[in-house]
Amino acid sequence: MATVNTKGYESLLNPGTASSTTTKEAAKTGSSDTLGKDDFLKLLLTELQHQDPTSPMDSDKILTQTSQLATLESATKTNTALENLSTQLKESVSSNATNLIGKMGSLGYNAITLSNSKSTYEVYFPTEIKDGTLTIKDANKNVIKTVDLGDVAAGKSGVLSFDWDGSDNDGNLVKDGYYSVTADYVDKTGASKTTQFGVYPVESIRYDNGSSYVKLGSNYYPISDVVEYYQP
What we know:
Blueprint: E1 3-5, H1 17-29, E2 34-36, H2 37-49, H3 59-97, E3 104-106, E4 111-114, E5 119-125, E6 129-137, E7 143-148, H4 149-152, E8 158-164, E9 177-187, E10 192-196, E11 199-208, E12 211-216, E13 219-222, E14 228-230
Antiparallel strand pairs: 1-2, 3-11, 3-14, 4-9, 5-8, 6-7, 6-9, 9-10, 11-12, 12-13
């Protein structure tokens, strides 16, 4: 519920009984600094009830406080409307997200992370592998490591997991960092194919605390992390 800071209205309170009474009213609702619109109305009514009959509150002050109360009420309704709209938008996004299942999703990059000379990553192969090469390159596009797919993945397809020990083709350890992963292969029909890390079919959608997550490979990513969806 919208709140208003009462520090700016201290000068509007009459001394003596009125001040003491309004303090008690504030104490009933919790903090004396932050009040809701109902408490603010009680303050105004209390001031009117305990004003000095010989020196009534200035009508301008009453109009000012009444106007502020109306503004607070309007702000409360606006906040409620915005919260309802936000909920509807989230429900709409969640509903539309299920339409992504079966499409291809791209993270927009093909770089894996090598940390402590270890990296486990996944690459999606849409068709069955007969032969081919998986290539790891550094940021300067220098070939660091090649993997013979005919030896390690012949007859396989789908999302395949690979482990890299951080060594290059000569057996030397390379520095930790980011490295790109691509694969060129021939499938069982003899067709040439190209694939890379970071592109996978959308397998499912998960909702958690109002947020949507997309399953790519064996991992879930926030839907905002996926930069492109397309038909396979």
